Amino acid sequence: xxxxxxxxxxxxxxxxxxxxxxxxxxxxxxxxxxxxxxxxxxxxxxxxxxxxxxxxxxxxxxxxxxxxxxxxxxxxxxxxxxxxxxxxxxxxxxxxxxxxxxxxxxxxxxxxxxxxxxxxxxxxxxxxxxxxxxxxxxxxxxxxxxxxxxxxxxxxxxxxxxxxxxxxxxxxxxxxxxxxxxxxxxxxxxxxxxxxxxxxxxxxxxxxxxxxxxxxxxxxxxxxxxxxxxxxxxxxxxxxxxxxxxxxxxxxxxxxxxxxxxxxxxxxxxxxxxxxxxxxxxxxxxxxxxxxxxxxxxxxxxxxxxxxxxxxx
Amino acid sequence: xxxxxxxxxxxxxxxxxxxxxxxxxxxxxxxxxxxxxxxxxxxxxxxxxxxxxxxxxxxxxxxxxxxxxxxxxxxxxxxxxxxxxxxxxxxxxxxxxxxxxxxxxxxxxxxxxxxxxxxxxxxxxxxxxxxxxxxxxxxxxxxxxxxxxxxxxxxxxxxxxxxxxxxxxxxxxxxxxxxxxxxxxxxxxxxxxxxxxxxxxxxxxxxxxxxxxxxxxxxxxxxxxxxxxxxxxxxxxxxxxxxxxxxxxxxxxxxxxxxxxxxxxxxxxxxxxxxxxxxxxxxxxxxxxxxxxxxxxxxxxxxxxxxxxxxxxxxxxxxxxxxxxxxxxxxx
Lengths: 313, 332
Fold this sequence. Notes:
heterodimer; A: 313 residues; ten-stranded antiparallel β-sheet; five-stranded antiparallel β-sheet; 1 helix; 1% helix; B: mainly beta; nine-stranded antiparallel β-sheet; 41% strand; disordered C terminus
């Protein structure tokens, strides 16, 4: 564990264990890098840069968009700040630029905490934390929340990692997501309906080459694969040599957003990238109610996701 | 670990909505500070309220007592330009489509230092929408026997120069005297008119004919019936730390705002329905600021910090009872 000078991603925390290494930043509890025996599982964020395109940041107390930044609570309109002015919505929660505080540290784990205070459109006091813990083949990330309000509070969370499989070119990876539905969106990327993936370009239950995909899409009906201890695999990227990076989630995390881009900032210009975002709720959940976790006063919640690397045979 | 959902009754003793609580005392003066937005929750001198007090378990109403950084007041359309590039901030005043009061009003500051009479709180401003700079900021409150000194500090940790402006949003009182009965004096020679979205317009001498507004407050005006919602500049502190505004009660007791030359602007604001436990009523905010509204666009008053450069500046407040008088007022 080291804590060094202040970077654009805040204070840096380095976790190491048996050839697995992760770097975490205090701002947005960002996952700056994750490697297993030197192979990148995520797109690393250079030390002197802020996260590009939300790379690695925690999304809380909602992931993705709230339409027009507006939702209703017990019949009362709630107007959030507009954090995506171009589309007029409130994107990715309230902690994207928050400087979390470390509350627990060891050589291979760190817990970072941030309290969400009542503010425009969000009349709740919620204590939140993120625990990053190395495993022998990757990383477990546990999100927690405790409602300190006197009223029950909605909660949803997610994370925004861009995944890699070592140095394999992104376009040549094959993506599998065992999801039976996707969320259609309008021109502002707000959801208009949850539809069956069958026969659509959004059917990635069988592997699809990333180079042929153009996604900014939330998936539902996720069938967690190989479930054990309440968690299962929900998306994986396979390289031509058979090596693989797998995203797993607690069964309570029922949604995955996939975002592909050719415009990610790279060291020498734009590069391809693919974000695979674990989420407890789909876009605009504060309005649809779908996937929302309602926390009674004093109630707490925890749920996990993680990444695992499998080398070529 | 599997997802769990566990009621935890121990946690329902809710944390204060103003954040972590700090109490400062010095010679009969007392201040309470909360870590959320580094809010000044109360200030008393000999038990006399010098600011509008707010409870430990409320979020500051109408910005009461909060720190405004890295800009006070509004940025028009939440949009400004840096070296010709548009910078789109989050829209944090949705009805008027502006960005208001900086980036730290929902931030819980960290404790950096503390003793019986002072506390220093810090907050990092990370690069974000419309703000491509990394700033390490802090606020130090120090209680003195007759009031309070507030010192704002910043270091630019970016590899490029960064603009900086800062302010605070205190509402002042002179004990229990109804605000309507107070006389406000502002040493300002100029005032900026605001448009219908409360954005900054033209600057006028306070005594210019046709400038509109409440006009010249250098000789003092009674607050009853006076509506203030304007930035004022060219204060009495141009050449050094000085008293820049004060409130005087009918019995001669007074609350005085002083500031370093860097705090060259005051936003005067008189909401008629400031919430108090006894019911809503008139209040008066006199907000010391290093620049006027929309400084990111006008450039007026902006402090530019080179990479690695630090800055600090102070303002404060002093109470004088009717028996003690006030040197500045007697000589002004």
